[in-house]
Backbone:
């Protein structure tokens, strides 16, 4: 199979490097997760670098160390993949480790001013270890397996030239499943947060969702139907967001199946870790099953539709999902299950996971409506 002619697109590929875009997004997630919950900032009369002289924490676990290491491995990998286009691998590794140390050190210093966070020299050291491991993996991949070239070839063969931002957003959808949601794929539920802020601001209880539905209470059947529609709409919208980025030569069925399975696998693993292994499949409700079935049926008929139709339907389904998720109340069963959520154990990732869950539909709709889709060169 011959590659598409990209002679006219080198500047576009250079400007929209997938590695650079992924690095930027991952860096922002690290900052968000490290500074979460962004409240209670105050000066404790201590140097922000004092944590470097602290003794090791009295209470720490292998899980804490492992998550700190694993969390920075992708950061080191993406740094090297970005840098090796310009400089030798060994120098890229050194710079990546230094950048990782600088980022981690800055985040620990900022946590000095957050009462809910505890800066630690152990966290600082394990983050550097994670960055180093990721950087070494990046050097090995780029040096011995022509990783850049293979990714670049697949990027040109399967995806349209403007797809970089879309690919980053699409790749974040499975990760958005980590945060517990009242309904499967129920992203963008801002009404409870806005209600809380308004209640504090006005010193009176406010429930925006209840106001929007005019106080109507949902029956069990309505809860079931709502979850079915939310699941179907979000699955369809996310999948169409991927499909509209693909060229005709891409293995659409394989990529779509991998995309959906990855989201479900992450959802299952997150339920097992956040609650208990016995609750790994609590997301499999009658409404979720019905939504998955409807979503699969819709996608089977739209998988080879023109990109412009896929893109417009993705916007419509995501907007419908947002409308429903912000009007209906949380499922009482979900609220009861949420009581067993060990948030403290995952505090470093809780903020980033919540941000992804809340913001993913809005960023994706912005991308799908961006004017660059109207350019003639974006057709494939």
Residues:
């Amino acid at each position: 199979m011959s590659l598409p002619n990209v002679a006219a697109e080198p500047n576009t590929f250079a400007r929209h490097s997938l590695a650079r875009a992924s690095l930027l997004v991952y860096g922002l997630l690290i900052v968000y997760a490290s500074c979460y919950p962004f409240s209670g900032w105050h000066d404790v009369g201590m140097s922000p670098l004092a944590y470097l002289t602290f003794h090791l924490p009295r209470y720490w676990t292998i899980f804490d160390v492992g998550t700190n290491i694993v969390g920075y491995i992708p950061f080191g990998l993406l740094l090297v993949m970005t840098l090796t286009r310009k400089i030798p691998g060994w120098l890229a590794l050194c710079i990546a480790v230094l950048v990782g140390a600088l980022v981690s050190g800055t985040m620990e210093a900022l946590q000095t001013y957050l009462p809910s966070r505890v800066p630690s020299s152990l966290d600082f050291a394990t983050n550097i270890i994670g960055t180093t491991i990721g950087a070494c993996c990046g050097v090995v991949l780029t040096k011995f397996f022509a990783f850049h070239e293979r990714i670049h070839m697949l990027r040109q063969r399967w995806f349209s030239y403007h797809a970089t931002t879309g690919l980053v957003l699409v790749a974040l959808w499975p990760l958005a499943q980590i945060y517990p949601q009242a309904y499967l794929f129920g992203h963008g539920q801002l009404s409870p947060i806005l209600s809380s802020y308004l209640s504090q601001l006005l010193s009176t209880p406010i429930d925006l969702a209840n106001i929007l539905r005019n106080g109507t209470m949902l029956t069990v059947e309505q809860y079931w139907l709502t979850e079915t529609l939310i699941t179907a709409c979000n699955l369809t919208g996310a999948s169409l967001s991927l499909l509209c980025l693909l060229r005709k030569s891409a293995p659409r069925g394989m990529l779509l199946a991998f995309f959906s399975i990855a989201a479900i696998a992450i959802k299952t693993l997150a339920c097992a870790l956040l609650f208990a292994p016995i609750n790994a499949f609590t997301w499999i409700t009658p409404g979720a099953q019905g939504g998955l079935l409807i979503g699969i049926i819709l996608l089977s008929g739209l998988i080879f539709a023109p990109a412009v139709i896929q893109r417009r339907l993705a916007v419509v389904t995501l907007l419908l999902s947002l409308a429903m998720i912000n009007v209906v109340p949380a499922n009482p069963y979900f609220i009861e299950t949420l009581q067993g959520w060990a948030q403290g154990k995952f505090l470093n990732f809780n903020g980033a996971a919540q941000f992804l869950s809340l913001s993913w539909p809005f960023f994706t709709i912005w991308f799908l409506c961006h004017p660059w889709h109207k350019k003639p060169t974006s057709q494939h």
Remarks:
- The chain has 15 helices and no strands.
